[in-house]
Prior knowledge:
heterodimer; A: 114 residues; mainly beta; seven-stranded mixed beta sheet; 11 strands; 0% helix; globular; B: 113 residues; six-stranded mixed beta sheet
Amino acid sequence: DGGITQSPKYLFRKEGQNVTLSCEQNLNHDAMYWYRQDPGQGLRLIYYSQIVNDFQKGDIAEGYSVSREKKESFPLTVTSAQKNPTAFYLCASSINRGISYGYTFGSGTRLTVV
Amino acid sequence: AQKVTQAQTEISVVEKEDVTLDCVYETRDTTYYLFWYKQPPSGELVFLIRRNSFDEQNEISGRYSWNFQKSTSSFNFTITASQVVDSAVYFCALGQGTYKYIFGTGTRLKVLA
Lengths: 114, 113
């Protein structure tokens, strides 16, 4: 079955470390997205990519980086510059370049700073 | 400015009760889309419905129904005869011709047996 796979499900980061969250989709979707979810704040967009080798900053991109070298993959790196990285991270994809058809979401990665 | 408000942070009901989740949105555009997603404890968001701004017909899907009213900028979601499996966080979202949604803060629904 097609879908989005996020790994790992749980991730622990020490202060000052960079960590990379994986997101892979086999839906042949053009666009991919990273959202951050904090309690009581809903979802906020970090980065999005409409096509391979191109990506755009979302509302809260500071302290994060992404790459889109393959259509299927959109990894997110949480750098040491992100001062409050503990959150639930959701990856999503969509069938075309607009938002009219909705997203398919992965099951998320919960990142905790220890 | 675009905004989605889900004023109900948490709702608890007893199984078989009906429950309505409220969603109020703000936008100046005439063309936009509204969505509802369900987030079960497993974490992923599950798409429930999409409605475009030109289609104000209410929709029913099994025990779920949606009431879209442009006059009040609302897109409310009703679950009839709730079940324990309906327990989840429900998000309303607004999109309008861009590549991102504006999400509400979510409503946590607890259905008690």
